[in-house]
Amino acid sequence: MPVRALVMGILNVTPDSFSDGGLHDRPSAAIAHGRRLIAEGADVVDVGGESSRPGASAVDEDTELERVL
Fold first, then answer.
1. How confident is the model at residue 16 (pLDDT cuts 50, 70, 90)?
2. Which residues contact 44 (CB under 8 A, 6 or more apart)?
3. Which of these, 2, 4, 25, 37, has the minimum number of CB atoms within 10 Å of its CB?
């Protein structure tokens, strides 16, 4: 049986994302982008709620959960 690689779409929902400048930090924008990723072939969507950019401040668990759920 052939193995197929999966495509992962990345959805950053942080206001200080280094990759998109916080473009998807509003729920409506995040949902629209997630749907677009799926429509374009993403099998999995990784939703990031804490910035990993150099110098970014850590956020508490409640803040991260509020962003991603």
1. confident
2. 6, 7, 8, 9
3. 2
Any idea what the Cα angle at residue 66 is, between residues 16 and 56, rounded to 5°? Answer: 25
Tally of residues, the chain = 69
Please provide residue 19's backbone torsions phi and psi, each rounded to the nearest 5 degrees.
-85, -30
- Domain edges within the chain: 15-68
Average pLDDT taken over every residue of the chain: 93
DSSP 7-50: PEEEEE--TT-TTTTTTT-SHHHHHHHHHHHHHTT-SEEEEE-S
